[in-house]
Design goal:
Helix content is about 45%, strand content about 25%. The protein has about 250 residues and is an alpha/beta fold. It has a single domain, classed as Rossmann fold, CATH 3.40.50. Strand 1, helix 3 and strand 2 form a beta-alpha-beta unit. The structure holds S-adenosyl-L-homocysteine.
Length: about 250
C-alpha cells in the first residue's frame, strides 16, 4: 500500500477529514447571505466525505458539485447523501482543485473547508475567483495564528509544514488584494479540532494498525498524527482554522 492509500484508509472512515463542525458551517452560511436564495450553483472543493456538503445541501436550495481528488472519499459521500435523501442535490466529481472544470462566472459560491492549503490560500483565492459569478461567495477555512506572539516550537512546526500560516488580518488582506470583499471571519473553536476531528482519528488508531499488520508505514503515519495532535493539545490557544467568507468583486 502506498502512503496515499494508508492516509485514505485512516481518514475515510471518520466523520470529517479536517477540523470543522456543522454549527460552524451553519455560521459561515449565515454570514454568506446565501440562505433564502433559489437555484444556487455551488462547488465544495476538497469535500472529503462531505461533512460540509451535507450541511449545505440541507440548508440551501442548491445543486452542489462536491469535488475531491480521491474517489474513495466521494464514494462515501454518495452513500451518505443517499441515506439522508440528498442525492438529487449533490453531484460528486473526482478532479484536482488546481484544474477545476467549471465555466467562468458560473458559480454562486465556492465552499472549501480545510482544503485550500493544498494549493495555498493566495493561489487558491486567485485561481478560483474567475469561476464565481460577480458577487459570488468564497467560504474557506485556513490555518490561522490567533495571537501576535507564540511558542517557538509551534511557529517552527507550522512554518515548516505550511509556510503560509498567518494572522486573520493578513489573510483578509490577501483576499482584498485578490479582488474579494470580506464578509466575515471567525476562528474555529477547540471542539472542532478535538471532538470532531482528532478524537475520532485517535479512536481508530488500533484498528487501523491491525488492518495493516502494524507495518512500518502504518506506524509512521500514526506517529505523525499523534505528534500533530499533541502539538495542538498543548498550543490550541495560539492556532486554529479561521473561517473566511468573502464576496467576489
Ligand atoms: N472538506 C472536508 C475535507 C478536508 S481534508 C472536511 O472538512 O472534512 C482536505 C481534502 O482535500 C481531502 O479530502 C483531500 O483528499 C482533498 N484534496 C487534497 N488535495 C487535493 C487536490 N489537489 N484537489 C482536490 N482535492 C484535494
Amino acid at each position: 500500500m502506498d502512503d496515499f492509500s494508508l492516509l485514505i484508509d485512516l481518514h475515510h472512515r471518520q466523520p470529517r477529514q479536517g477540523p470543522g463542525g456543522d454549527r460552524e458551517t451553519a455560521l459561515a452560511l449565515a454570514l454568506s447571505g446565501l440562505k433564502g436564495r433559489t437555484g444556487l450553483k455551488i462547488a465544495d472543493i476538497g469535500c472529503g466525505t462531505g461533512a460540509a456538503t451535507l450541511v449545505l445541501a440541507t440548508a440551501l436550495d442548491a445543486t452542489i458539485t462536491a469535488v475531491d481528488l480521491f474517489p474513495a472519499f466521494l464514494g462515501t459521500l454518495d452513500a451518505r447523501a443517499g441515506e439522508v435523501g440528498l442525492s438529487d442535490k449533490i453531484q460528486t466529481l473526482s478532479a484536482s482543485m488546481e484544474a477545476l472544470p467549471f465555466e467562468e462566472g458560473s458559480l454562486d459560491a465556492i465552499w472549501s473547508e480545510g482544503a485550500i492549503y493544498n494549493l495555498g490560500f493566495a493561489k487558491g483565492a486567485a485561481l478560483w475567483r474567475p469561476l464565481l459569478k460577480s458577487g459570488g461567495v468564497l467560504a474557506v477555512s485556513e490555518l490561522t495564528w490567533l495571537t501576535k506572539d507564540r511558542p517557538d516550537e509551534l511557529t517552527e512546526h507550522w512554518h515548516k509544514v505550511y509556510p503560509e500560516v498567518d494572522t486573520a488580518s493578513a489573510k483578509l488582506h490577501v483576499l482584498e488584494a485578490a479582488g474579494y470583499e470580506p464578509l466575515g471571519y471567525f476562528p474555529l473553536p477547540e471542539r472542532c479540532w478535538l471532538e470532531n476531528y482528532y478524537d475520532p482519528i485517535e479512536a481508530g488508531f488500533e484498528a487501523f494498525l491491525a488492518r495493516h499488520h502494524h507495518s512500518d508505514a502504518a506506524r509512521a503515519l500514526v506517529d505523525a498524527e499523534q505528534r500533530e495532535i499533541s502539538l495542538y493539545r498543548r498550543y490550541s490557544d495560539y492556532v486554529s482554522y479561521g473561517f473566511y467568507i468573502a464576496r467576489r468583486l
